[in-house]
Amino acid sequence: xxxxxxxxxxxxxAIAEAAIAAGCRHFFGxxxxxQTEVAAYMSKRMPKIGGIxxxxxxxxxxxxxxxxAGAAGVRVMTSTSSPGISLMAExxxxxxxxxxxxxxxxxxxxGPGLGGIQPSQADxxxxxxASGHGDFHMLVFAPSTVQEMVDLVAGAFELGDKYRMxxxxxxxxxxxxxxxxxTLPEPRDMRDxxxxxxxxxxxxxxxxxxxxxxxxxxxxxxxxxxxxxxxxVIVENEQRAEEYLADDADIIxxxxxxxxxxxxxxxDMARKSGIKAGLVRPITLWPFPEKFLAKHAGHAKTFLSVxxxxxxxxxxxxxxxKCSRPVEFYGRTGGVIPTPKExxxxxxxxxxxxxx
Amino acid sequence: MTVxxxxxxxxxxxxxxxxPGCTHGIVHRLVAEVIDELGIEGxxxxxxxxGCSVFTYNYFGCDxxxxxxxxxxxxxxxxxxxxxxxxVFTYLGDGDLAAIGMGxxxxxxxxxxxxxxxxxxxxxxxxxxxxxxxxxxxxxxxQTTPYGRDVKTAGNPIRVCELLSSLDGVALAQRVTVDCxxxxxxxxxxxxxxxxxxxxxxxxxxxxxxxxxxxxxxxxPKDALQWLRDNMLPYYPLGVYKDVGEGGQ
Lengths: 356, 249
Hints:
The complex is a heterodimer of chains A (about 350) and B (about 250).
Chain A: E1 6-10, H1 11-21, E2 26-29, H2 36-45, E3 52-55, H3 59-71, E4 76-80, H4 82-97, E5 102-108, H5 124-128, E6 139-141, H6 146-163, E7 166-172, H7 173-177, E8 179-183, E9 209-210, H8 217-237, E10 241-244, E11 251-254, H9 257-272, E12 277-282, E13 284-286, H10 290-294, E14 302-307, H11 314-320, E15 327-331, H12 340-350
Parallel strand pairs in A: 2-3, 2-4, 4-5, 5-7, 6-7, 11-12, 11-14, 14-15
Antiparallel strand pairs in A: 1-8, 6-13, 10-12
Helix pairs in contact in A: 1-2, 1-6, 3-4, 9-12
Chain B: H1 24-38, E1 44-48, H2 56-59, E2 63-66, H3 72-82, E3 87-93, H4 94-100, H5 102-110, E4 116-121, H6 151-154, H7 160-164, E5 170-177, H8 181-199, E6 204-210, H9 214-217, H10 221-235, E7 239-243
Parallel strand pairs in B: 1-2, 1-3, 3-4, 4-6, 5-6
Antiparallel strand pairs in B: 5-7
């Protein structure tokens, strides 16, 4: 397909095509609703372009195939939905502990347990704080449109390669299943030049070892600390967020992904009724865009975190503004998407007008 | 002075951590000799498992990846799919392959994944200090079968080569041991065939090496070899369980 033209695509298919355009030729995954279109699209496209689509026997196997391919130095991804991420937690920890870049897509659904198959954001803490055992982070990106799903993919791969770490696109069942017009990027050629990769030394260097085991505690500590120095650089340089009507806002709504779309409409409704509401939409969830929130703590009276969970991001908002303002919460969970009216009502309540 | 035998180039000149009498050292050497003889060290990637063989990444001179417990077949699949011209092998113990990694093993074999599995079966968990393995013999005493393995409660051992040989994707499934010179030579022939089959694109190859664990069996190395002959080999008969042959694919 011509890349410059706008086409109507499902979010899950757009993310797959964007990954291919970004040079990804290796996909390993296991079917789970509501992300299966990513795998189905890859299974259709990869054989036509000399790439690899392989359906693993489980999410556990799939993430370890990602580890192997990433360790061998190629651009590689997997895609799953919430319960699948729980199964991948082990592999994600090993990938982070082995400094292997890869892309993991989580098209979130309701939880816990088997939960449901409707959209959710209840994997926020898992994605940003505890994706597996041990001290580590992933880069986490939260698109809010199908176009942004496309736009974030190449950057996620690039930053993953730059910092040698896993990156996640934290999507949800709404963004994955909805269709919107998108402009796809021009396909790029991948350099195959990762000198650290385990791909055969050809007799030209000492062997490369991709490993996360360090029996000596001092050695392990120093490696983890070095990784955290890298994380500090990322926190300083890679925060991203979109601000909407935030500069003069009394009430700052903080929302990402699907709930930010709802929140944006609610902010417009509030503005029409004379309430100075604004929106800060985190695009990176790790690093959390603290700078974009802290700068509004001077003028905003209240912050409102709107989430499709029981309030997993609220504490990060509080920390970002150092608890200098009240941080309220409105959310729906279990696969329920809040309506703009519900969020608007929450804004009105915070503004002191309960009678609507 | 004439040199009769040298350390294979593919085996790095570092001290191995294995216990006295453990057969890992012999098998490491055989794998390294095969890599040398085929001239493939520069295009080989090994995948270490979790267990006593976890440190193989320090011992083999080829590029290495260390996999989570049981996941080496999946990691090796990723490496091989990324670098199909490389030679990829895994080196795993019985707990890794036949307990926590049985799913990954069966599916890698069923896919005919073009990798070699070097499988060390010593009927016990070594690294964690001698617990029951999926291949622990009926009646065998381990730390977690202190009264001997009772198959009524702890289940029966798994014969891996027999089980995998029913799968179409398997090119070679052979059980060997390294208790004497004759058998060491046969083990090396099997390993070399496995690597050659991979290079010819024939599919999944497994070489099961019936091995000893003197430390956790609580025996001298010599007694352990005799116990292997008396107890292991009757339950795990040596032989070729599947071989697609030269023409097979």
